Amino acid sequence: MLRLTCPHCGVTAEETELTPGGEAHLRRAGPDATDAEFESYLFARKNPKGVVFERWRHAHGCGKWFIAARHSVSWQVFGTYPAQTTEPPADLIETIRAAIPTWEGWQ
């Protein structure tokens, strides 16, 4: 079972206490976006085998959104951070690179 630590309240919760919110760090399509760009924003998602950044909500706890970095195959959790962060913290990137030296980056 997936266990994530909420960076807001510090509680480590099982996935049954959390609500998944999909891929993190999406760039919204602006008002000048083409139909294809807007469609891509709404529906196109990466689904990599490896490190993923996902939004989660601590639904049965503090209720706040956060981002979790984990491995999609092994379910190894590298860390969590507040959803308002625009990119993964440097120390989290270092943790992932230490665990997976061949990892090419988060974007």
UniProtKB/TrEMBL annotation:
InterPro entries: SoxD, SoxD_sf. One of its GO terms (biological process) is tetrahydrofolate metabolic process. GO terms for molecular function: sarcosine oxidase activity. This is Sarcosine oxidase subunit delta. It comes from Phaeovulum vinaykumarii.
